[in-house]
Amino acid sequence: MAVKKSGVYDAILKQVNAEMYSAYLYLQLSADASAMKWNGAAAWLRAHAGEEMTHASKFYDYLIRKGIDVKFDAIEKPATTAKDLHEIFKAVYGHEIKVTAMINKIMETAIAEKDYAAAAELQWFVTEQVEEEETARDIVDMLEKAGKSPEALIFIDHHLGCKKE
Fold it and tell me: Please, what is the average pLDDT of the chain?
């Protein structure tokens, strides 16, 4: 028997779509980095796309456990215009800030609806977003310090390739 959706369940279902979009965006940015021959960054972004799929699955699993009738919306095509590695990671950082705002809004809804099970589930994502923003911000900071130095950019690309999340 399917459970009637509430505001928080609708918001979580929308977040599944947002996480899938994030994966799609990071996969596109990976392709962009690969085309620019930043193979380490491309590998990092591809791994990060996989992490976003895991987030979508975690939200999906929660909805299924709660008995929610899940129906998906289409995933929007990501628009990327990055011309260099710095722009790619500024896009990543900006996107993570948006995702944090979405997660926080769902948490606000869960608390307003007194859905403490959803709030408990969401706490993992709140904590995860602190890490996601910090990681993206650190990469942007490294790239800003590197400027146009080929040696520094090659080092950062290698570092990202070794990291892969």
Answer: 95
Domains of the chain plus CATH, in order, are: 7-71+80-163 (1.20.1260.10)
The strand pairing partners of 68, in sequence order, are 3
150 burial level (CB within 10 Å; 0-12, 13-18, 19+): exposed
Q: Hey, which residues does 3 pair with through a beta bridge?
A: 68
Q: Is the pTM of this model over 0.90?
A: yes
Residue type, 126: V
Axis crossing angle, helix 39-65 with helix 85-112, rounded to the nearest 10: 10
CA–chain centroid gap for 84, Å, is 20
Q: Three-state DSSP class for 144?
A: helix
